[in-house]
Amino acid sequence: MEDDLKNDYNLMDAVKEGETPPGSYNIALRSVTKKEFRLDYWTGSFLMACLGYLAISGVLLFYYFQQGNPYGSTQEIINNVYFGHLILTSHLYTAYAMVIIVYVHMFRNYFVGAYKGRFRWIQWMLGVILFILVYVEAVLGYLLSETYIGVSALHVMELLVERSAIGRLLPALSNWIVSLLIGDATTASTVGHLLALHVAVIGGLIVVIAFLHFFLFEKSGPFNLSDRKNDKTVKKDEKHYPWYPVNLIYTLFTSFIFIAIILIFSALFMQILPPAYGTLGYGYTPFPDWYIMPVYKLMDLAGYGLTTGGVPLVTFFFISLLFIPFIDRYKYKAALDRPMITVFGVFYLIALFIMGLWGYSQPGLTQTRLLTMAMWWGITMVSLFTVYAMRFAKKDLVKNES
């Protein structure tokens, strides 16, 4: 069983015929068992549905979007294009859904230890890269309409690049990165650069890496099923259903239902376009979108500033997630059998919620360093206590049953 959880670093083994990891079958696309039709195994499929709908709706919006007049053309889409408001709103809400599901998908696999196995380490790392790219793609789309908060966020991004380690050590490189974002600083140039990054560069990378991620999944199979071959509760002669047509029909059906729910929600709650840049009214408090809010508050971390507070924390978060297959040295995959790894995951989730809530309650207001440190240590203690209390309770339960 432990051999199934070891990493295989020879990637050529992944493409050899006749050598497939546990849970795979020697066909182009895997057949599936009845147990694999659980929805929690299909969060990746929902992400692909989001990607497909965003591509289609994005092309439709692209026909009417003017990079020289981004805010005005967005208003034109809302007011004068048939179903324009619905398409724009559904594009936004599908992006929201994609961000939510990418969190669910990643942390679900994090807590079950789905990065353990022959090629799962590279599958996980590609998934984390996709997570980052989805975030960047969402932020780029957020900047395109030239709203007040969007342009302000762009200025913050410039500041982050200039004050980062790259900006301090390699100022020429940081200036080049900023020029990629804003061009010559005219509206048409800036929006043109952002649009190219949004559609071609980041969007293209997402498609390519998603394909590689899917290929590795087909080679490895669902983690909790394929890696339980020694479990007595798993039937060795369990029936397998072919990918075509069963898996394909199930994928299309769930995807269409998912997109239909988003369209209905979009029709009921149409997007309200924020004020344009330079037209902010008195008494209006601009807020970044909810998925940016935790990062926004980290950038404003009490008394530590951008370069010593928020930026290192965000960088540490992504780097630790990226290399978790090499950090996790536990021999088991259950969450409570990997206590410190689970503590880190719980810490991330609690911190994400608190930073978002803090950002909405006190936007732009910092606290004392003492309060900030008390918050971080408080989250740490809660995470440790919760995980280890559940671990001890599980041990007592197993002991009593035996």
What is the fold's blueprint, element by element?
Elements: E1 32-33, H1 43-62, H2 70-80, H3 84-112, H4 120-143, H5 148-163, H6 165-169, H7 171-182, H8 187-220, H9 223-226, E2 240-241, H10 243-268, H11 293-299, H12 305-322, H13 324-327, H14 339-361, H15 369-401
Antiparallel strand pairs: 1-2
Descriptive notes:
The chain is an all-alpha fold and 402 residues long. It folds into 2 domains: 2-291, Cytochrome Bc1 Complex, Chain C, CATH 1.20.810.10; 293-402, no CATH class. The protein has 15 helices and 2 strands. Helix 1 runs antiparallel to helix 3, helix 3 (84-112) packs antiparallel against helix 4 (120-143) and helix 14 packs antiparallel against helix 15 (369-401).
Outline of the structure:
The protein has 402 residues and is mainly α. The chain contains 15 helices and two strands.
